[in-house]
Fold:
Amino acid sequence: MSTLAVHDHGVAHHDDHGHEHHHNQSFLSKYVFSMDHKMISKQFLITGITMAVIAMILSILFRIQLAYPDKTFPLLTTLLGRFAPNGRISADFYLSLVTIHGTIMVFFVLTAGLSGTFANLLIPLQIGARDMASPFMNMLSYWFFFIASVIMLSSFLVQKGPASGGWTIYPPLSALPKAMPGSGMGMTLWLVSMVFFIASSLIGGINYVSTVLNMRTKGMDLWKMPLTIWALFLTAILGMLAFPVLVAGVVLLIFDRSFGTSFYLSDIVLNGVQQPYEGGSPILFQHLFWFLGHPEVYIVIMPAMGISSEVMSVNSRKPIFGYHAMVYSLIGITVLSFIVWGHHMFVTGMNPFLGGVFMITTLIIAVPSAVKTFNWLATLWRGNIRFTPAMLFAIGMVSFFISGGLTGIFLGNATLDINLHDTYFVVAHFHLVMGSAAIFGMLAGVYHWFPKMFGKMMDEKLGYLHFWLTFIGAYLVFFPMHFMGLDGVPRRYYAFTEFVSMQRWLTVNTFVTWAAIMAACAQVAFLYNFITSIFIGKKATQNPWESNTLEWTTPVEHLHGNWPGEIPTVYRWPYDYSKPGAEEDYIPQTVPFSQTMSSNLPTDFEDNPKGLEELNKFQSTLKANEQVK
Amino acid sequence: MMAQVQKNNDRLDLAPKKFNMWLFIFTSFMFFAAISSGFIVYSGSKGHGLNVIMPDAFKYSTITIILSSVTLFLAQKAAKGLQFGKQRMFLWLTFLLGVAFFVIQIYAWYVLAYKMGVHLTDPNASRSFVYIFTGMHLLHIIAAILLLLNTLWGTYKNIPQVRNLFKMEMTSIFWHFLGIIWIYLYVFLLLNQN
Structure:
């Protein structure tokens, strides 16, 4: 036993050594192969923003094609070369553009960029931990993500261009290298990139869950965790359950592509030649893909929900309305997200009874979503609202979630879906409810935690400009698409000029493209603000938003291990804002109830009879004093 | 001094790392659950049964992997009792049994392909699934063998006992899990072979 203890000591010392005396780290270990969660979160954020800018440029390119299908732009040929011969984007490259735009936005920006940034930054800081459970795995997670990003982008450099079968990579287009130009090398790179991406997500997710469950500071029980942590925690669980299933689907796809199996392939004639594949089921891929794919959209939106909840509570100077309901609705969404995947497959010839089942489970998700929406609005109700840029983006997130969520009720309906499937109605729906909403949640997080990340403040005026242009732009882009979809305009088409019935939408497409260009320009304001603020921004104070959570108790200067001394103990939930009787309108989680006698409530002592007794004693003394007066 | 120890303790915590291993096992389990449900969906919707009697080699590999779990358990017991020579011997035994398992599985592929005419590229993809199940499991086995070698290497370097026990535990969790997964896959195939 004594041997054990001695050894234990040795290890502890060794570890301590690693933390305390390595402040003169080399450039490589500080900025590149960093194992500090704060640095890794910055790496995720900056890579995520870079990928977002690239995906946005891709979207502008295909919007130009949709707005001006008959015009030629010699500049495009100069920029894109063989992908845009004669000044027009080629049909194949158009498909590549939408595919890679979707892939980058869903996976690289809104999964890795969003969860990666904020889980890494906030989990250790808000639960009171020195770092992640395994800092090494954390570093690995980022570098796998980086490799995945490089490989995905490198597919623009191959002869036949990037993958072009849509971000859902349905076989047979994705399974037969000769099916179309994008099915060749581009598709192979897509698959390799996603293998790295999934590895990154899983490694990251495992770390997040483990850290939240094992490394909370003293007093931080689950019901004292901020909603950001709840959301990031449940998101990580979703990822751990869903991504392995995508791996299974992709493994079978790789065997079909490269080893001649026929899991997904059957009765295929390519260029007039009958292919040897028999008996495969392309629907099998859809099942495996959407078993990931549907939880994936919640992986995208739940961190945004958590961030918005936190930001809205802080800036309304009010406790979040219905904290427990917020947590239970997140758990409800997590569970339900696994039994709704069939609503992506209503028109695959699914048994109508099964369609009915999936329809009911899908519509049930409206309940937790509505609970959350109600609670956000109720949090705003009669609050002392401070319209910081972060707050505006959080409100914007709620707005998009409502207006995009409503159309989900239409699409979740098996019968209506026959008409709406694969039209612009779907494009409008998911770009509002998970695209814009999640991006706004992410931007809210960036504006709110920028002082924590970089120790500087972002410029507010530029933030307002950025918000209003983006908010209005997003609605102008996506709202008209509902009507196109209702009219039956299909998504992913290269040009609508060939169809007489769709020609009338050309003017709308032109309008949408100009709105998109305006919204894209607004992002320049953000980028300028983000980059310059890092270097010349106003210095941040320790708690600039007068917030309750633990991350604001750490010093502005980052240090490895987060807190210079002991990790603070937590005594109360994170939402004691504007508590009646308190001296200030916020009480940090680290303030014990004994220091706030005048504002304590009987409900604060539900499982603490001794405290309740003290409170009653205090209040009766107070009353006695009043009577004396 | 006490405060110093306290401070150091909150910086060294191996329990969360062990928990990471459990979570990884969970994701790995999801993967095997997904491919076996893929099998059910495929054979259910296409009406293609497997119609292959599993080769006997799988029986031998099952026995091998169970034995390797026993030797690994004994190695861990020895490690806890500070009998490092015994620990090393059982680790080597486990390693050899692991390699043997690997070889027998490859031999089973040979039997399937050359004796029974069941190929990876069979038009009946239910049969391809046999290769996918075993192949994906073997990939995990490679990882497990590497982990085992790392632990073994640790016993030759004079690492602290906490580290040694920690490595032993990590290896054991993964190794026993792979045994269980193999038994699951084998039983799954046996139940579906007709």
Remarks:
- The interface with chain A takes residues 3, 5-13, 15-17, 19-20, 23-24, 26-28, 30-31, 34-35, 38, 41-42, 45-46, 48, 82, 120-125, 128, 132, 136, 160-163 of chain B (CB under 8 Å).
- Confidence is low (pLDDT under 50) at residues 1-11 of chain B.
